[in-house]
Structure formats: C-alpha cells, structure tokens
Specification:
Helix content is 26%, strand content 37%. By secondary structure, the protein is an alpha+beta fold.
Length: 153
C-alpha cells in the first residue's frame, strides 16, 4: 500500500515537471496544432506524419493514473497516446465576436470606462478587466463560473 502512494506521488511530481507549451511550441511535435483550442492537458494520437488523428482534453489526474513515459515536453502511454500540457493564448477579439457575455460589471461614471466583462467562450469563462480609459488590463481563463464569481467578490 505504501508503495502505491509513493508511486502516485512520483507520478504527480513527474507530471508537474512536464513543460507547459504554447501552441507554437507544440507545433514542433504536431503538424496540425490548431486542434488545441483551449488551455489544458490533451490526449493525442498522431499518425506517422505527426498529424493529429484524435485529440481530447483530459484531466491531469487521468495521465497520473496511467503508466506513462515522461519527457520534458510530453509523456506517452503504453497505447502510444501522447499527452501535452498546452497553454492557449486567448484572442480577445475572437472572444468579443464569438463568446456569450455572461457578466457585465462596468462603471456608470461618464469619464470612466473601467470594469469587468465575463464571457462564456469555448467551454471556458473568460474574465476581462479594463482600466478607467477602457484599456484591457487583464484577461483570465476559468473552468467554471463559480471560480469567476469568487474572484469578483
């Protein structure tokens, strides 16, 4: 029993040491990296030309529950699925155009354009904070609306 716990701790430590890659960095390993739309851990099957055959967003715990071989930028399980930790930069223009506005908390003052907008976008929640002049100060990505509401309180 103790051996299993130590092994899970080792897996957790190894997974944390796998680098988080941008979409551009993943493209060094994967031909069609545009399949990575949101940040997270991806389970990927590649063909011989390094093109993505299948791709799904998974929980990090799923990877840690498998026997995988760890490398710096990814890991591979015994079924030849590769796992990548990917951070996708959100394009705020695309969020405005294609997201659904969920929360709008902006100043009512005439000379103040500050506030917060929260959009539902590609199965994530995007919170944008604006300064008095209306410039984007911060853009944060959340998995659920409760986490967004906690930040707003």
């Amino acid at each position: 029993m103790i051996i299993i716990i130590v092994r899970n701790d080792m897996r957790d430590m190894k997974m944390k040491n796998v680098n988080v890659l941008s979409v551009e960095e993943v493209s060094e390993y994967v031909v069609n990296s545009e399949v990575f739309e949101v940040s997270g851990v991806y389970k990927v099957m590649l063909n011989d030309d390094c093109e993505v055959v299948s791709c799904e967003l998974v929980e990090e715990s799923e990877v840690m529950s498998k026997d995988v071989k760890y490398y710096d930028d990814f890991c591979i399980d015994d079924e030849n699925y590769e796992y990548y930790k990917v951070e996708v930069e959100v394009d705020e223009d695309d969020v405005f155009e294609n997201g659904e506005l969920i929360i709008e908390d902006v100043s009512n003052d005439e000379d103040d354009d500050s506030g917060v907008l929260v959009y539902s976008y590609k199965n994530k929640y995007i919170m944008m904070s604006f300064d008095i002049g209306g410039s984007l100060c911060e853009l944060e990505e959340f998995d659920n609306l409760d986490d967004v509401k906690k930040m707003l309180c």
